[in-house]
């Protein structure tokens, strides 16, 4: 007896995911052979006879009918196997694939494919679909592969999951913003989307048209907006009007107007093509000074589109270095991913919408970026023809770059900047200088504001000057001096510059017995070497390709990245300061005890593991730990660190909440508040450690954050977390390569993943064999919605039923067989509060333990929640009057005391008892936080009034709570005899509202009274603090 496919020891190492996938595949394939035989083999440890079985291969036919329900696969077996073998999160090696197929082929049937048949079928599908992988040779002769950008973008438009989520035009969202297409770059700076369709006619920008009133108009920009019907240009409340497609442009006719106005596209009637067909009639409607408009040429994309609708596709580009190994051994690869910026933020964050482009362990990053630029430029110049599954037509796509996301070192390289350690450390503006200058009062003050902005043309000119300096004598020192005085250095031309400098040194070297070559001859040879390197191209075409990229201003389009700048930068620096201060006074255990006792309800921060943080506080923390600490640190260190350090953490908490806003209701107010918070934080930071603003450039990067938010939308959009997470998928693809051609293997793996994922989710493609746009068979498309586990492996979100109002009962929580015990209505708190004995109430109710709110939070009894206020709540007004205040807020905060559930089969939540809190008249003097007092009075609210959970913290500051309590430590889900110190909270009705909680920040803000939403300036004497910081620096 032996195990089929691999040894028992090998099988014992398979993960639970593998086994579940095996079982699902088996059940699907065994439906034709009784359904239970293969499962029986599984239960019997899969032992079979000594002779391995050989199933009959079901080889793919040369021609597969379009009527096949599993088209383009020849059979259900091939289709299910492709689904299993093309999951990015569950990759299989060839040996594993062979083991699975050998296993599922028992008992053998004609339709079970061999590995050879699976590969031939996959190759057939790739040939039918069109292989997007291309080879690229760099200027330094590095070879790597790249997945064509045009084909990836075309799939977004031909797939219903992605196409129906897109917005084709930027939007004037008026007061607020939440998406990248609300930002000023897409709305105002970039060229407009070229065309708009009205009643079947296609109108292009910069083309003369006629509206239904007979007036002529030249649109310059198409966008969505909400304006009054009679006067679209008038300023108004956009929430009062529907969102419509509008155009910004100029009217022309007998009266020539230079004033731009906004009009609705619904009034457009005749296109430029229609008007050009009868030029005489056109001239009759134009003033003599405007007759030149009749001779205007059509838009450049007009002829290229050939009657197709044209859409613009902005791209978010990400490049990073990572290891291609799962192990700790570093196997450095650079990789580029991209996302379609026409998606809303919720779609951009999905792994399904991240596209892999290229990678190489050999080529430097800017060579990869040059290939990326050429792929985008090719797509833009030729035009991308795609199938629009929304309009059921062919469309033309115009592709361009929007911005480049990445960590700080990578963004510096993309800007031809030397990085964070040079004198001029910012690649957005001219700030910095020599150490002597930065220690002066003038130089130190420049760090707190933005300097003169860098321009791509100036950067390109400086790099060309550096190449010219490499040809002359003394090049080494000159280049060193220039780099130090500008902070610029182009990594793409660094090798040729170094070659020229070394050649010049050798030719100019004086040696006895040799005649020194004349300087003119040396320069001529160096110029010839440079000419050979350029191969006929100009110098400007060989330097950083991003400096002249369409749609990109590289110095303004590398936005401040919040993960590395905020969490892994500023928060990490202050965490190091906390550890340093507390270790000196042996109080680090107090921090651990308080962190172990902090209230996590409503915080949504599962990474606050006090023992892990305490043990690995120096090097083991990552972004999620710092994100959690920023939300609670002020409650942990209020009496064990200096006040300036406490103020710094309080501002960090406020800053993190502002930066992680996903919805900005009023852009101007938000940016003003963010700018003020950043200025306060920088002032407090310079009071804590004056030198940190000089040695850590990430503090200065905060200054540019408001401008980037205005330009691109909420900061979460240009966070790299989604791409850092995708790095895990990249590593999984790398480990199944033999590393002989790592770039080719990775590109083909991701291309295959994209093709399979596109087909099974209903996407269209141009079938090369049948020469028409087709989609997968009905059974292939319907498979994933009914097989949720396979859908999850493709990172497709599963739609669940609305869980609002779902309740858990007190009885039978751990054992559903336990009988439920209802309580009498007369014994409930609700009865006494409602003072009602009405027959309208049931005589019995179940006690609930938790409730799911409308925003998806699960709120338990004895936790805190935000509920809608009752305008007629006289008791609530009276409570406020006791504090000499009359506050009628939109929301109120309460402690859940009771949840009553009906005894009918529907188990509806009927009543919820809240014990209310009231706000103190002012912020806490030390922590600057809103204070709450829990009242004795309780109210009954409707379940729909419970909006969300909220995080409150015990007021240990005024209660003087100490660490004098011990609780057992849990290991392996069991309590041990080991204990850890915790805070003994003294009984008090006083609490803090945690306004640093990112979760439900909007509800928390709206629940605050107006006078408690504004905190005082943390540093009243700004000039005095900064001047004192400079004096401390100069004394060192």
Describe it for me?
With 1036 residues, the chain is α+β, with helices and mostly antiparallel strands. It has six domains: 68-129 and 766-799, no CATH class; 133-165 and 312-408 and 722-747, no CATH class; 195-231 and 239-298; 421-509 and 516-541, no CATH class; 562-719, no CATH class; 806-834 and 841-872 and 879-1012, SH3 type barrels. Helices cover 37% and strands 19% of the residues. A hairpin with a 2-residue loop joins β5 and β6. The chain starts with a strand and ends with a helix.
Kindly identify the CATH topology of the largest domain: SH3 type barrels
Q: Which structural category fits the helices and strands?
A: alpha+beta
In CATH terms, what is the architecture of the largest domain?
Roll
Can you count the helices? 40
Kindly state the number of beta strands.
33
Average pLDDT, rounded to a whole number, is: 85
Keywords: Membrane, Transmembrane, Transmembrane helix
């Amino acid at each position: 007896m032996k195990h089929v496919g691999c040894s028992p020891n090998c099988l014992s190492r398979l993960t639970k995911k593998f086994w579940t996938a095996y079982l699902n595949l088996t059940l699907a394939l065994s439906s034709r052979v009784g359904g239970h035989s293969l499962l029986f083999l599984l239960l019997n440890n899969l032992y079979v006879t000594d002779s391995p079985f050989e199933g009959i291969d079901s080889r793919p036919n040369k021609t597969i009918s379009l009527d096949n329900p599993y088209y383009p696969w020849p059979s259900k077996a091939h289709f299910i196997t492709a689904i299993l073998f093309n999951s990015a999160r569950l990759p299989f090696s060839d040996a594993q694939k062979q083991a699975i197929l050998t296993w599922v082929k028992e008992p053998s049937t004609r339709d079970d494919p061999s590995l050879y048949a699976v590969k031939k079928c996959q190759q057939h599908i790739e040939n039918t679909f069109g292989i997007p992988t291309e080879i690229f040779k760099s200027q330094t002769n590095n070879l790597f592969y790249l997945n064509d950008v045009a084909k990836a973008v075309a799939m977004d438009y031909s797939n219903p999951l992605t196409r129906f989520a897109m917005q084709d035009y930027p939007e004037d969202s008026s007061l607020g913003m939440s998406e990248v297409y609300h930002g000023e770059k897409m709305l105002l700076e970039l060229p407009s989307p070229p065309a708009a369709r009205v009643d079947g006619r296609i109108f292009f920008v910069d083309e003369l048209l006629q509206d239904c009133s007979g007036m002529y108009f030249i649109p310059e920009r198409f966008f969505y907006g909400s304006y009054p019907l009679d006067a679209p240009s008038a300023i108004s409340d956009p929430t009062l009007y529907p969102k419509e497609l509008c155009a910004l442009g100029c009217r022309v006719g007998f009266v020539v107007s230079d004033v731009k106005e906004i009009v609705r596209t619904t009034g457009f009637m005749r296109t430029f093509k229609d008007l050009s067909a009868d030029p005489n009639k056109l001239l009759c409607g134009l003033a003599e000074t405007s007759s030149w408009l009749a001779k205007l040429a059509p838009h450049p994309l007009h002829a290229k589109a050939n009657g197709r609708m044209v859409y613009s596709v902005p791209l978010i580009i990400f490049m990073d270095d990572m290891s291609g190994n799962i192990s700790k051994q570093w196997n450095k690869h650079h990789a580029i991913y991209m996302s379609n910026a026409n998606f809303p933020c919720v779609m951009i964050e999905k792994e399904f919408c991240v596209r892999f482009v290229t990678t190489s362990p050999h080529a430097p990053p800017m060579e990869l970026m040059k290939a990326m630029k050429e792929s985008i430029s090719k797509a833009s110049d030729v035009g991308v023809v795609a199938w629009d599954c929304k309009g059921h037509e062919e469309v033309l796509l115009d592709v361009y770059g929007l911005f480049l996301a990445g960590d700080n070192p990578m963004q510096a390289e993309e800007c031809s900047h030397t990085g964070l350690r040079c004198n001029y450390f910012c690649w957005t503006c001219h700030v910095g200088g020599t150490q002597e200058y930065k220690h002066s009062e003038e130089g130190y003050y420049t760090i707190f504001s933005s300097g003169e902005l860098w321009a791509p043309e100036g950067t390109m000119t400086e790099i060309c000057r550096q190449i010219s300096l490499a040809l002359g004598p003394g090049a080494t020192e000159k280049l060193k001096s220039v780099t130090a005085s500008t902070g610029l250095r182009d990594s793409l031309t660094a090798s040729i510059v170094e070659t020229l400098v070394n050649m010049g040194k050798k030719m100019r070297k004086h040696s006895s017995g040799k005649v020194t070559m004349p300087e003119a001859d040396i320069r001529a040879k160096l110029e010839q070497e440079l000419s050979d390197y350029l191969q006929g191209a100009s110098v400007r075409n060989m330097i950083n390709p991003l400096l002249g990229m369409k749609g990109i201003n590289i110095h303004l389009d590398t936005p401040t990245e919040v993960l590395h700048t905020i969490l892994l930068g500023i928060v990490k620096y202050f965490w190091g300061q906390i550890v340093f201060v507390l270790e000196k006074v042996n109080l680090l255990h107090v921090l651990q005890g308080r962190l172990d006792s902090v209230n996590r309800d409503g915080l949504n921060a599962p990474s606050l593991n006090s023992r892990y943080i305490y043990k690995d506080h120096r090097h083991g923390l990552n972004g999620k730990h710092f994100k959690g600490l920023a939300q609670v640190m002020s409650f942990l260190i209020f009496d064990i660190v200096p006040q300036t350090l406490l103020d710094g953490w309080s501002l960090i908490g406020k800053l993190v909440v502002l930066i992680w806003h996903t919805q900005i209701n009023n852009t101007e107010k938000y940016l003003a508040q963010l700018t003020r918070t950043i200025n306060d934080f920088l002032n407090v930071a310079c009071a804590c450690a004056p030198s940190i603003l000089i040695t850590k450039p990430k503090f200065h990067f905060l200054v540019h954050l408001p401008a980037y938010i205005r330009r691109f939308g909420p900061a979460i959009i240009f966070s790299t977390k989604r791409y850092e997470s995708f790095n895990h998928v990249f590593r999984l693809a790398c480990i199944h390569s033999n590393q002989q051609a790592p770039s080719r293997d990775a590109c083909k793996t991701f291309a295959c993943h994209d093709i399979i994922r596109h087909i099974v989710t209903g996407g269209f493609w141009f079938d090369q064999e049948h020469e028409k746009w087709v989609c997968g068979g009905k059974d292939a498309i319907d498979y994933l919605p009914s097989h949720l586990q396979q859908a999850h492996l493709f990172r497709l979100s599963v739609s669940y039923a609305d869980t609002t109002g779902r309740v858990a009962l007190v009885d039978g929580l751990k054992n559903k067989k336990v009988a439920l015990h209802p309580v009498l209505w007369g014994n409930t708190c609700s009865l006494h509060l409602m003072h009602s004995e009405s027959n309208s109430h049931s005589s019995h109710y179940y006690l609930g333990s938790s409730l799911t709110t409308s925003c998806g939070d699960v709120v338990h009894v004895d936790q805190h929640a935000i509920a809608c206020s009752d305008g007629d709540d006289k008791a609530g007004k009276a409570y406020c009057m006791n504090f000499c205040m009359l506050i009628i807020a939109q929301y109120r905060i309460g402690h859940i005391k009771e949840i009553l559930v009906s005894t009918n089969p529907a188990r509806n939540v009927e009543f919820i008892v809240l014990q209310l809190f009231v706000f103190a008249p002012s912020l806490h003097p030390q922590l600057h936080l809103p204070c709450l007092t829990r009242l004795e009075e309780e109210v009954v609210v409707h379940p729909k009034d419970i909006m969300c959970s909220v995080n409150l913290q015990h007021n240990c500051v005024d209660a003087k709570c100490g660490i004098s309590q011990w609780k057992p430590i849990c290991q392996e889900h069991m309590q041990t005899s080991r204990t850890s110190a915790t805070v003994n909270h003294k009984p008090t009705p006083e609490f803090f509202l945690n306004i640093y909680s990112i979760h439900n920040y909007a509800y928390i803000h709206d629940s605050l009274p107006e006078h408690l939403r504004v905190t005082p300036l943390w540093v009243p004497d700004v000039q005095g603090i900064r001047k004192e910081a400079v004096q401390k620096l100069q004394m060192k």
